[in-house]
Amino acid sequence: MAKDQEKVKFAFDIYDFDGHGEVDMFYIGDLLRACDLNPSEKLVATFGPPDRKGQKMMKVADFLPMYAAVKKDKNKGSYEDFVEVLKLYDKQEDGTMMLAELEYILSSLGEPMEKAQVQTALSDLAPEEDEDGLIPYDSFLKKLCGKA
């Protein structure tokens, strides 16, 4: 836990813009992500972040229980979980899927991404589609999950 506290303190200091030992609660989601966590927007909302900056501040002691709760959350999905989902779109059962279907999944299912976010993710992570519009989804997932 000492390593976690060090990571949290480092990220907290970055978001402590005025150096008073407090972070605006508006940045809870960003702060959690800076600590190498990947909470859903729904989970972040349970901590009650304000709609605007400057409404509520928190100290690192207020943030640590939030960090611990997100770290324990089992609802984040693993590489293996993602492979199982994308296998449903593998019509030829050869490890490929339509790039257009992946684009649809990212923009429509779960926590939908904005069109610009989808385009960035695909250009950064997805391999070139072949002449049939197919991509090997495993290489996309490996890059997405940091296994490449």
TrEMBL record:
In alphabetical order, the GO MF annotations are: calcium ion binding
Superkingdom of origin: Eukaryota
Instruction: Report the residue ranges that make up the EF-hand domain in this protein.
Output: 3-38, 77-112
Which GO cellular component does the record give, naming just one?
A: muscle myosin complex
Claim: Repeat is one of the keywords in the record: yes
* Keyword Repeat (UniProt): yes
Q: Give me the segments passing through the membrane.
A: none
Provide the alphabetized UniProt keywords: Motor protein, Muscle protein, Myosin, Repeat
Q: Which PANTHER family match?
A: MYOSIN LIGHT CHAIN 1, 3, MYOSIN LIGHT CHAIN ALKALI
Question: What's the protein called, per UniProt?
Answer: EF-hand domain-containing protein
Organism, as annotated: Meganyctiphanes norvegica (Northern krill)
